[in-house]
Amino acid sequence: MTIHRRPVSRLPRHLAALLAVGMTTATALLPARTAAAEATAPSAGPLEARTTVLFSTPYVPSGCYRIPAIVRAVDGSLLAFAERRIHTCADKSHMDLVVRRLPPRASQWLPEETVQGSTLEAPATWGNPGPVVYRKLPGAPATDAPDGRIVLMSTHNPVDPATPGSNHRTAPRTPYVLHSDDNGVTWSPARSLYEELDDPSWGHMQTAPVHGIQLTRGAHAGRLAVGVNYRAGSKFGLMIAYSDDGGTTWRKGAQVEYPPVARQNVGELSLVELANGDILVWGRQNTNTGTPEELADPHRVPHRSIAISKDGGETYHSGYTNLPGFEAPPIQSASLRTDATDEGDAYNRILASAPSVNQEPRIRPMVRASFDEGRTWQGVDTPLDSTDEGVQVYGTNDRSVTVQECACYGGYSDMVELPHGDVALLYERGATDYRSEIAFVTLDDRDLHTPSATPDARGRSALVFDGVTTTRGMYGRALAFDGQRGRVQLPYRTTPVLGPGDFTVSTWIRYDDGTRDQAIVSAYGQDGERGVSLRAEPGGDRIRGVVNAADGSVTVTSTGAYADGAWHHVALRRQGGTVALYVDGLRAGVASGAGGAVIGDDPAPIYLGQGPDGADRFHGSMDEFRIYDRALSPAELARLRTSNTNRIPGLTAHLPMNAIVPPGERSETGDDR
Known about the structure:
Layout: H1 35-39, E1 51-56, E2 64-72, E3 78-85, E4 95-102, E5 113-116, E6 124-133, E7 150-158, E8 174-180, E9 191-192, H2 194-197, E10 202-207, E11 213-214, E12 224-232, E13 235-243, E14 251-258, E15 266-273, E16 279-285, H3 292-295, E17 304-309, E18 318-322, E19 334-339, E20 349-355, E21 365-370, E22 391-392, H4 403-406, E23 409-417, E24 423-430, E25 437-443, E26 452-455, E27 461-464, E28 468-472, E29 477-482, E30 488-489, E31 503-510, E32 518-523, E33 531-537, E34 542-549, E35 552-557, E36 568-575, E37 578-583, E38 586-592, E39 606-608, E40 619-628, H5 634-643, E41 651-655
Antiparallel strand pairs: 1-25, 2-3, 3-4, 4-5, 6-7, 7-8, 8-9, 10-12, 11-12, 12-13, 13-14, 15-16, 16-17, 17-18, 19-20, 20-21, 21-22, 23-24, 24-25, 26-27, 27-30, 28-29, 29-40, 30-39, 31-36, 31-40, 32-33, 32-39, 33-34, 34-35, 36-37, 37-38, 40-41
């Protein structure tokens, strides 16, 4: 029988009891631990001094706090939301939606308040907080909602008073929305979104649980968007809900349903607006079947899935695809954009927070960054002294330590950007159970392992990751790659530096490692998609250039690998559909049949020193990298090689590679905008 859900009236708001660990300063003093807790306490890390426990449950599983979400109000206040699960820690049991607030310039969080709750006589589930702050943006649709309104999505389902601590799995759930116009001090009555977002055939649905976003680019600037997932019979559903009037009314947007299969079982969604205006949907992948070896390998059993919407969340441009290589168990994960080149930043950066071991239990909570719009992410297994990795926020990051020794369980999380570019993480954690407490920690650029930069003569900076240093170059200084971690990523451009027409890619290389093939340049292409690449392949005694274009693919090779420790100039040129490879001014190979665009709808970045999948790291030095939007003549190539001139027309990218600028510092040329 189908149960048709009806809205319920809002019950009075009340203050929840303040637990003993409630009040600490924003920068110090965790609550005292018992002797038993000390025995399994995680080793103190550099972030503990900046960690505050906001919600704590000393008696798990007899009630707990779960499902954190956080936003920053326009006055600077921070609002940390959670579910207060009253009787047990079960999902869909009796729980209230609570908040703690840190006023602007304050050092202490205010006591917990109940935003939405029920009574013991009429218990209910109020949960899945999904807050988003509405701003009135230039050119956005006019609304009655004031600037700075905090819109809070949530869900409700009834709970049997006889078993309030049970998981009421089959109870129908209804979405609600409420708002605050005074930065979270008071809240409006909750309003049912049953008619707008619900469906009587759905047995379960939930908003968030994580902050929503407001679009700032393109035709839908000003729009609010949140993720929704639901159960429709035997199928799972994934939806984006959006509002164009400041959260007053909501519409169903992009929507897909699919049967639960072993390799496609997506759940809780987090949204990010990309620098080109698209929405990246960052989804939980619940795959948990396979051998122990398969489950431990994030490339074989991935636990994140992604999709793209190009119309403001109204439809999906691409379906959900699994993202290999992001090591995490099946769990919710928050995402947050912090930097965008179209807003004047030197690079694009999106953060994601999640435990960082690919199987249960949920341990080692970590924040990782993507600098290529969510395509690839910092790893978790690189050496401890490497900054080319995410930051583990709880417990030792020594992966040889056992789970019991680490005592670093971590669960659901959310993030918010703070003034001056710092980031705050609100996350579940505990020494023996990730549901023990919800902690707040602040992270700066150094904590986040922000890469260095090298100035781009065209006005931005390329990212330089660990494993790259400076050395004597062909002209001035050069960059030296260690063959293990080192790589460089060109700055994102809204206008591609390699387009549908002629081009020339030029650089100097010096290497003597003949033991393995190595990537010099990898532009755009990944998994057989369109792109351009240059590789040193001593195993085949050659330099190889590949152009994979809309109208065909060609490969050109030299007759030697040039792995002799001397500097060599290498250039790949396309003129019409003909591709030529030049080494030291001489044409080493030529082939025809690669016309049209070399960039697809969803391009990978341009890398120096690694392949598009992070493999085949270059072991040697590189200097004076350039791209032109035309085919240079042999005379121009000779002039470039002998004089290193910048006066040849058509230059679209140029890395002199003379310096590496540490994170947080500006280059002398002012390129780090």
